[in-house]
């Protein structure tokens, strides 16, 4: 059996009760933290909270060499942990399909997602979000500024009066959570990049969703680019035209100018 467990958004306590039960009952526990991170905790605290040993796999160990995970799941109850909701990344879907091809039973224990948290924290209506996109670091896509695909996604959503959730790039080079090797794109940096393509456009920053001190700030992209929003993780939402209730929510929650 291979059970995928989403750990939620922030720290070791963000997991659901069902997820904690699955971890408790597992013979072996694997994890990856390169697609996203729980910035409110570390590996040691996770292991202590769940009273287990967690075997962390890097990108190559999940995507190119998943054999140890699948071999274990053929004979034991194995849990595979990720931040957020475990099936948001196609990497995890691929691993699940490989397991099914080998006749390994799989199941999913969901965790809270950044997308649902962004809607909840901002007051923007969930059904009005269009296609999401990820804004990469400039050096990651080999060019300057914002990739055409990101611009096209935002423009298409705005043309249909939909909000765009912009995930911000993270670079995690050490699977064992060496903070010196981690780089997180900040919302002010992202706003500065997007302001070149969408001047005077409204943006909404969501910082540290799922933590005890999340921040939600609404302003034009050029203004957001001049501010700081504290510790990661950050998200950025580019809204479509606001419903009156959404406008009231952003005014009350995010200081809508």
From TrEMBL:
Pathway field: Protein modification; peptidyl-diphthamide biosynthesis
GO biological process: methylation; protein histidyl modification to diphthamide
GO molecular function, one term: diphthine synthase activity
EC main group: transferase
Superkingdom of origin organism: Archaea
Chemical reaction(s) catalysed: 2-[(3S)-amino-3-carboxypropyl]-L-histidyl-[translation elongation factor 2] + 3 S-adenosyl-L-methionine = diphthine-[translation elongation factor 2] + 3 S-adenosyl-L-homocysteine + 3 H(+)
Pfam families with a match to the protein in the record: TP_methylase
EC number per UniProt: 2.1.1.98
Gene3D superfamilies: Cobalt-precorrin-4 Transmethylase, Domain 1, Methyltransferase, Cobalt-precorrin-4 Transmethylase, Domain 2
InterPro entries according to UniProt: 4pyrrol_Mease, 4pyrrol_Methylase_sf, 4pyrrole_Mease_sub1, 4pyrrole_Mease_sub2, Dphthn_synthase
Ribosomal protein recorded as keyword: no
UniProt domain Tetrapyrrole methylase: residue ranges: 1-225
Family: Belongs to the diphthine synthase family.
Subunit annotation: Homodimer.
NCBIfam families: dph5
Protein name, as recorded: Diphthine synthase
